[in-house]
Amino acid sequence: MSTAETTPAAPPAVVWSGPGQIRRLATAIALGEAAGVLVPVVVIALMARISTEAMYVRSLYVPLALLFAALQVGFDVSNQVAASVSRGAGRPHDVLPVAASMARIGLAVWGTVSVALIVAAPGLASLLSVPDASAGDFVAFTRWAALANLIFFPTVLLSSSLRGFGRPRSAAAVVLTGAIVEVGGVAILGFGTDLGVFALPVAIGAGGVAALTVGAVQVYRSGLWRARAPMVWRPEAVGKLTSVGLPVAMSFVIMAVANAGLLWALGPFGSDVVSGYSAAGALQNLLIVPASALGSATAIVLNQLRGAGRPGDGPAVLRAGIGLTAAVYAVLAAAIWLGREPLSQLLAGEAAVSSQTVTFLTIVGLTYFCLGLNVMTLLLIEQIGGGVIALVLNVPYFGGMVVLGSYLARSQHDPSALYWTIAVLNICGMLIVPFVTWRHVRRISRAEAR
């Protein structure tokens, strides 16, 4: 093996060149993130057409899917931050060893959570008031899905290494591969066999294997692989996980708990309301992809500049990111609200379920402009050392949604009261979160410039 294959060339120096730098990076990141988020949307649509029971069981699994997302994002963001700083500092040889060190920690954490869910599945069915006719399928589905998700963990680190180093297209290829195989597997197995909802864990496992293979190839082709280097323990991996990943993961845990609380609050209104809300939630997850991509792209550029010793460019980078986000979500929020009826029919299938999705989007749709700005700035602050700040900001948002929204919905015997609570919280967040992020960016820029 030649030196050129094992030692990546020194990357060019990082400089701030304007909003186009964020836009180009965000576009490539959004491609991968859209695939990852679109999968649940397509899966829910497929499940609705496989059977009502399949869609109901998949809807109940949403909080547990968010729990795995919490683990994923904790390691993903920590490794992405480490890779982007290494890129700015001109140290490509540090990228993979740090990722491999995180993998050792993640294997223990991810495995423990999976085993815990496997054991706790019957208790979760009781907690969520799953009818006896569906409880067996829910328990079995939860256990198989927990095992299948184990396969995806290594791909998280491979794709975040590529993304943080400035190879978002390579990272997107990893995610796209897993998404295509998973959706294709659900379609083929769900309609071509009697597996029903159990087609999904099989498809998840197949997608994980395919994505892992592509990820390993992309990392090797990028020049980040060096012989024996990944086996060297890097203690800074622990620091990144505790300072960046842990607060981010805790925010997602809060989100998972809040989602479970909302399903509990909507339970008495029937399965049509639960399924309709879950369909709207899946659409919302897709809708925030641009904000997520813009937040990550802005953070990557800012962290690369910090690694290159140029923290003073931070405020200019933030202004550009916020401006791009506002422009995108002015269009998206209006489009979602105006197209809420055909979108709901496409997602939910049955008229009784789609009408509930329409109700949600009618109330919340226009506030997606606010949500986009909130998500973008929260993701940015999480990736530049403000994870605890983001966690503190998330608590009243999700706490208010569950406590106040659930109380109003149940006391008024109307799920719309919960949806109005979500809309108001989105607006309140826009008045607070971007301002807090701006202050944090200015503070670290001044401190590191000294």
List keywords for this structure.
450 residues, single chain, disordered N terminus, 83% helix
Query: Strand share of the residues?
Result: under 5%
> Main beta sheet: strand number and arrangement?
none
Mean pLDDT comes to 84
The value of Rg in angstroms is 21 Å
How many helices does DSSP assign? Answer: 18
Outline type:
globular
Please tally the β strands and state the result: 0
The rounded distance between the terminal residues' Cα atoms is 44 Å
- Helix-strand pattern, N to C? HHHHHHHHHHHHHHHHHH
| Parts with pLDDT < 50 across at least 5 consecutive residues | 1-8
Structural class, by secondary structure, is mainly alpha
Instruction: Specify the helix fraction band.
Output: over 70%
Subcellular location: Cell membrane
Membrane topology: Multi-pass membrane protein
Protein name: MATE family efflux transporter
Keywords: Cell membrane, Membrane, Transmembrane, Transmembrane helix, Transport
Plain-language structure description:
InterPro entries: MATE_fam, Membrane_Transporter-Flippase. Keywords: Cell membrane, Membrane, Transmembrane, Transmembrane helix, Transport. It is a multi-pass membrane protein. The protein has 450 residues and is mainly α. Helix content is 83%, strand content 0%. It is built from 18 helices and no strands. It has helices spanning 3-6, 19-50, 52-60, 62-88, 95-127, 132-150, 153-164, 168-192, 199-222, 236-266, 271-287, 289-307, 314-338, 340-348, 351-364, 368-382, 387-412, 416-449. Helix 10 (236-266) packs parallel to helix 17.
